[in-house]
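Tokens for chain A. Residues wanted.
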């Protein structure tokens, strides 16, 4: 007979300890799952800062990794700010050149993402101001509130309808055109929040204003977009009814 031949003869205390151990393990796993999202976000930010620290020490490959990580985000932001692909590409290159030059002054307790978007925002605003001197004035926003939370622009669901592909492309062009009519302050907040996914707090640090002002600008930007696009969307609804 080997050790603990009869499993039914296992002492009760050992069985209780096993069950308690399994419960504790389940609680531990549950806690870890709940913290996974936060851990991943923190890991990305720490990874950014680790790369910055290496780049500050002269590691050019570390900075190249940061460029690869943020290039598409900065280009997307720049393109929607200036509505021109070539200009956006030039601005994106300039953003990273300036970031590299200013890297020694970057403080490691800061967020690299916030810092790089601040550089991009300043460059895009300067470029757009020069362009605005030769183009139409920004859209007036008189009459829009500043306190309510805005649910966002409602766009018809055309998914699954191949005949609507061209119309969807046209809508994208209309949205980009409408974004271009916003003032630089509203456009910046809208793009950083709705397109780049930055938080209110991060945007406040990028543009240098209180969080409440960020929320107000976001509300006004969304309301303005809806007003610009409403005739287009209503026209589409009328076409649907006539079919």
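Reply:
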């Amino acid at each position: 007979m080997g050790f603990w031949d009869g499993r039914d003869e296992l002492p009760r205390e050992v069985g209780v300890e096993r069950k308690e151990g399994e419960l504790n393990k389940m609680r531990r796993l549950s806690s870890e799952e709940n913290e996974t999202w936060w851990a991943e976000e923190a890991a990305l930010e720490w990874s950014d800062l680790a790369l910055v620290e290496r780049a500050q020490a002269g590691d050019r490959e570390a900075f190249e990794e940061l460029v690869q990580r943020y290039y598409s985000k900065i280009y997307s932001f720049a393109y929607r700010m200036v509505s021109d692909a070539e200009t956006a590409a030039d601005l994106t290159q300039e953003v990273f050149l300036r970031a590299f030059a200013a890297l020694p002054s970057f403080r490691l307790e800061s967020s690299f993402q916030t810092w790089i978007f601040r550089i991009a925002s300043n460059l895009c605003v300067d470029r757009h101001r020069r362009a605005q001197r030769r183009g139409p004035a920004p859209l007036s926003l008189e009459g829009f509130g500043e306190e309510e939370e805005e649910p966002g622009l409602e766009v018809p669901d055309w998914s699954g309808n191949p005949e609507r592909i061209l119309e969807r492309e046209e809508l994208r062009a209309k949205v980009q055109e409408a974004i271009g009519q916003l003032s630089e302050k509203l456009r910046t907040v809208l793009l950083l929040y709705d397109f780049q996914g930055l938080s209110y707090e991060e945007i406040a640090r990028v543009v240098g204003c209180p969080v409440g002002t960020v929320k107000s600008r976001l509300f006004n930007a969304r309301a303005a977009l809806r007003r610009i696009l409403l005739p287009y969307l209503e026209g589409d609804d009328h076409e649907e009814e006539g079919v």
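The radius of gyration is 26 Å. The first helix runs from residue 12 to 56.
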